[in-house]
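Known limitations

Files may contain more than one protein. Parsers should not assume a single record per file. Below, a two-record file is shown to illustrate correct handling: read the sequence, read the token line, then continue until end of file.
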Amino acid sequence: MSTATLIIARRVLQQIRRDRRTLALLVILPATLMSLLAWIYSDTQMFDRIAPSLFALFPFTVMFLVTSVATLRERTSGTLERTLSMPVHRIDFIGGYSLAFAVLSIVQTIVSATVVLWLLGLAIEGSLWQFFAVSLIDALAGTALGLLASAFARTEFQAVQFMPAVVFPQFMLCGLLVPRDQLPTVLEKISDVLPLSYAVDAIKKVSAGSGSIGTDMLVLLAFLVVFLALAAVSMRRRTA
């Protein structure tokens, strides 16, 4: 890991620390949404059935949104252009942002999992470490996809517009609304190439204490690497 990567990561963390609204969105919102869900289903067993899937959805969505907007802001403000005019490679910029948001993802995962498991009482049959690991990789995949999406947007509004185009189809096909093996064949095949599907599958297996999550985790990690590589290749040095 280069010095430039660490410097960029520290700068991003300092910026987000000063932006309290973004910090609250990253750390508090997923746990708040899960608490609201538990309140809605307080008199039923529905919460225990759908909470694991939504626990995978919320961090992925929040990290995608914040990362795509924050990265685009770097480009439109000229910060990216100034940074890359120095002896810094694109991979350093991507690595710095990935490292910064990885730290935030860890904090988000700890806060959300603590609220869901101990305050809201969601029972899981599998390992707590596996639950944390899946949640963290899920949030990092959302971060990587947000970095990639930011390369194709020209304004922050366009970055936000990518969310319904990129996240909503995954929400509908990840197995939350209908089990994936009960989807029409074409939609099932599409769901097989969406990262959120594997996050939901893994978190369900951990919650139920059944099945191995090794394959799901490897696929999520592969998505993470591919998204980061494409983000580095697609990044423009100058603002259009």
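...continuing to the second record:
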Amino acid sequence: MTSSDKTPPLTEWLHEWQQSGNDRLDDRLLEVLYDELRRVAVQRLAHESQAAITPTELVHETWLRLKPPNTPIVDRNSFLRIASVAMRHLLVDQARERLSQKRYGVMQTLTVSLAENGAQQRALDDTQLLDLDRALDALASGHPRVAEAVVLRAFAGLDLHELAGALCISLATAKRDLAFGRAWLAATLREPT
């Protein structure tokens, strides 16, 4: 039996964790996945102005929302997809909370990038982040894979190769999905003139 015939231990642990909710396994998984989740969180928050949450807090809050997820976890890529959605919801919930408190003064912003190379980042204030969240929900109703690609790019900071691997699609399809998603969101979020 070759190593390619065996399921990687991480995948086995993810399956067992999801089925049993084993706390001991929960700790082991967090230890193994922490660095990767923190990398995603640091990347996600790198350009945030007056960050309301640190990367460490984002990882821990995300982890709490993943215990154990209802969505089937097939492998590391599916776990990252689930984690990116949890990060999105956490950041959106924080924006809603800040807006409900109607605080004035320093505007909280979150930088979002959908570009292939990470360029063309755009800072979004809380209201714009909520508008983006609603637009992503609308996009997902008609084009779920495109919406998932946009979430993985914008909220998990995955590059095109990682994105294609996470969604099990070709690099060309990932590029097309992001291009379509950018155009769809631009048209949907275009401010009235």
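Parsers that stop after the first record will miss the second one. For reference, the second record is described as follows. Strands lie at 109-112, 122-125.
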